[in-house]
Amino acid sequence: MTHSTTTRIGLLALLWWLTAATAWAQNLTVTGRVLDATSQPQPGVTVLEQGTTNGTSTDGDGRFSLSNVPATATLVFSAVGSVTQTVPLNGRTTLEIRLATNQTELNEVVVTGSRATEGRSNILTTSPVDVISAREIKAYAQTDVTQILTYIAPSFQSTRQTVTDGTDFVDPATLRGLGPDQVLVLVNGKRRHTSALVNINGTPGRGSVGTDMNVIPPAAIKRIEVLREGAAAQYGSDAIAGVINIQLKDDTTGISVSSTAGQTTKSDGQVFQADANLGFGLGRRGFIDVSGQFSNRSFVDRSGPDTAPLIYLGTSGGNYPSGLSDAQKLDLKARDNALVAQNGFNRRDIRVGSADTRTYGSFVNAAYTLVPSIGLEAYFAGGLTRRTGRSGALYRLPTQVTQTDASIYPNGFLPFINSTVNDASAIVGLRGRVLGFAADLSNTYGRNALDYNVTNTLNASLPLGTSPTSFYAGQLAFQQNTTNLGFSRKFTEVGPLATLNVAFGGEFRVDNFQIVAGEEGSYRNYQRVVAPATTPMGSPTYAAGAAQGFPGYQPQDATNKSRTNLAGYLDFESDITEKLLLSLAGRAERYSDFGSNVSGKVAARYSILDGLALRGAISNGFRAPSLQQRYFTNSSTQFSGSVLRDVLTTNNDSPLTQAFGIESLKQEKSNNYSLGLTARILKTITLTVDAYQIDIRDRIVLSSQFNRDNPLVNTLLGTLPVQGIQFFANAVNTRTRGLDIVANERLTFGSDNRLTLTAAANFNETVVRSFNSSAFIDSNPSLQNTLFDRAQRARLENGQPRSKINLSADYGYKIFGVNLRTVRFGEVQTKDPNPARSFIDQTFSAKWVTDLTVSAQIIRNIGLSVGVNNLFNVYPDRLYQDPNNNEQSLAYSTADATNRGRFLYNSNQFGFNGAFYFGRLNFTL
């Protein structure tokens, strides 16, 4: 071969190589279809370019299209219940993929409850974890995070409240029957700030401060992990009952938009919600995921019939005079109704039910790789939410002369409490590898503020005819800043250990709580005399001061308090053998306002047989008293026994609190024990059963009301314009025992049928084991049994369902889907504070609530769902219509038979909205 020939061949080879390399370097658009093991289309499969965030998912027919993909790329196909498959493109532009069913792992991989660098299936963890996917979140018509969790996770409970001031707008949420402040909420694994609100009225979680999860748009959520076990040793304060970790979407490409509309069968409770999610990649080095939500929910009115006269001005009590015949009473009632018509009074304004709310929310989740060689990545997540609401207080009758002004409201009036919740949060951080360790440095900031405006009201103590009818009543605000640095690394074959994961780190947190006073007229008493003294030595009767419905925060209530917290933690997790997984965790913390705490945890999982394992944990935990519990103070109108009273809530530093012998608040301490079983049955069924016991010492509660009826209390209150006082104290020791059961099965049969069956249940019981009083209270018999009366004890022990059972079936056929779910809410009880009135105690029986949704993927980009929540229009048991049972029926006093706007139903199980019909339209691009 000549030199020239060799040169020509070499040039041709080089030209061919350059041409091929150029074509190979071009980005492609790859299309294809994904089928399951039975060759049926598999929707919802994640298709991802390996090593990037460039991805998509399959449609209802199993098809996908992914653009901007290098010819040399490898695609990853994954779906729950299927074996993940990696496919090198090698220049191909069309693919047909068959995913085999994963018989060993039908559950999501979870990261909550462990700092291991790799997640585990929730049947392979040492602790029980529920995983709620984005698909489950959107399956039914619940549009708030707390309501979604209530109907999916049996150990979680939240119900909208009514006539409870700020609690009407921030739903108290609980886990395993404990308090709202005994569950820690994380977002992307980072501590979420709590609400500014203190629940001081008669609701579940009275005296607690929870986290407002409803400010997070469901459209932003990838999945929710619910760790049902004490985890204070891993995550710090508040994690006595468990941890809820909300993982934001991070792999979305394209646009998804949905709109939901519906109402109850009584033509109220209208809901309109629109949400959207937009995700896009950043040059295959990162992503930005943006979500938004608008939600408008109208009030629900379930007030009882008003059978007494609306207006009868001829008697001081507003009741019919004695001795009247039925005909005379009917005549008076006709005159009353004529007055109603003449003055335009609307009976519907006397309403009891859930509040009007309107929410605007947005969230962003983003990450970008700064230095690929060391995996250095910057990330950000944050949101802004604004929620406005309006709820009714208690109706003021025209005959209640100390609380109204006939020249302004001749027929009485219903005050409205208008709230504005502004919530902001931001997580910024860097993560990468340092000396072989995965390192994560982050700063998390959050602020929650609640403003109150009272409308359709007055300050009755102003001269007649001069009071404004609306007031700014003040603001509660809480903010938190947390800086965290953590390291973790997985070692293999460490001595006799198969694996060893080591994690350690530190945290510094600053909390701040503020109370801002309202305008003067919202809280001041201007001393209008309603009736002169009847005797020379007597006192005149004065009108009530402050805004009716919600007295404003006073200047002496104004607060601006902060504290710091420094913590360090150390975690070990090891596969000791192929059968035994062991984890150890320890955490030490120091708070600037009450001292230090050390907690630890030991957890293990042992495989008895293939598919059968035991798991258990022992830990001690704690919960620091919130700043709100330490420093909150205000006056509010509440029920006490059979009387509506103005009650003063004093903070822990108040001389009045200390006069009762109450010491400074300290941390709650807990001991947690759990033992469970996990099993895989017939290769398609997973089963977990977990028993637990949680002992809590020095549990913080809001005391019962000490009233002026007691001479000693009357002396302590002096000239203060209130009739009662309450405060926070480490007052009780409790024990909670329970059992969680979760079973699910995923089936495919026939040519186009898919069926997922789930059965889950929680059974729990909380009992008060002992009380922590004070020497002063114990030495005065008249004060005993008041710090924590039988009504408060019943609220703690029986105020929430002791059992909840969830049965669901999700069926799919080609483009159609049917979701059917029924939930059994166990019984609850209420008790009167006075043992002599135990005849008023009531037990509300268990009820089943059934939801149904039918959906269809009409075309590739558009889906439609219609359905009904509470299909059989189930209501809780009615409350006893007893005018003395004021905390339930809203009667004003024993002598007042008007009983206007009384409750018919209790809202502590599942609410009293009845059936709700809805439609939802989904659009993806």
Q: Concise description?
A:
The chain has about 900 residues and is mainly β.
Which CATH class of the largest domain? Mainly Beta
| Mean pLDDT over the full residue set | 84
Strand content: over 45%
The number of strands is 45
Write down the overall geometry: globular
- State the fourth-level CATH superfamily of the largest domain: TonB-dependent receptor, beta-barrel domain
CATH fold-level assignment of the largest domain = Maltoporin, Chain A
Q: Assign a percent range to the helix content.
A: 10-25%
Contiguous uncertain segments of 5+ residues = 1-25, 103-107, 307-319, 339-350, 881-902
Biggest sheet layout: 22 strands, antiparallel, barrel
The radius of gyration over CA amounts to 31 Å
Number of domains: 2
Return the CATH architecture of the largest domain. Answer: Beta Barrel
How far the N terminus sits from the C terminus, by CA atoms, comes to 60 Å
Q: Assign the structural class, choosing from mainly alpha, mainly beta, alpha/beta, alpha+beta, or little secondary structure.
A: mainly beta
Structure description:
This protein has 925 residues and is mainly beta. The protein has two domains: 23-98, Sandwich (Immunoglobulin-like); 120-332 and 349-924, Maltoporin, Chain A. A hairpin with a 2-residue loop joins strand 24 (470-494) and strand 25. The longest helix is centred in the N-terminal third of the chain and has 23 residues, at 3-25. The radius of gyration is 31 Å and the shape is globular.
Tell me the layout of helices and strands:
Elements: H1 3-25, E1 27-35, E2 46-49, E3 55-57, E4 63-70, E5 74-78, E6 85-88, E7 94-98, E8 109-110, E9 120-121, E10 129-133, H2 134-137, H3 145-152, E11 156-158, E12 173-175, E13 183-187, E14 190-191, E15 221-227, H4 232-235, E16 242-248, E17 254-264, E18 271-281, E19 286-297, H5 326-343, E20 356-371, E21 376-392, E22 416-434, E23 437-455, E24 470-494, E25 497-517, H6 520-523, E26 529-531, E27 541-542, E28 559-575, E29 580-591, E30 595-609, E31 612-623, H7 627-631, E32 634-640, E33 643-650, H8 655-659, E34 668-681, E35 685-702, E36 706-707, H9 711-717, E37 724-749, E38 753-771, H10 775-778, H11 790-798, E39 803-813, E40 816-825, E41 828-830, E42 842-844, E43 847-859, E44 862-869, H12 886-889, E45 916-924
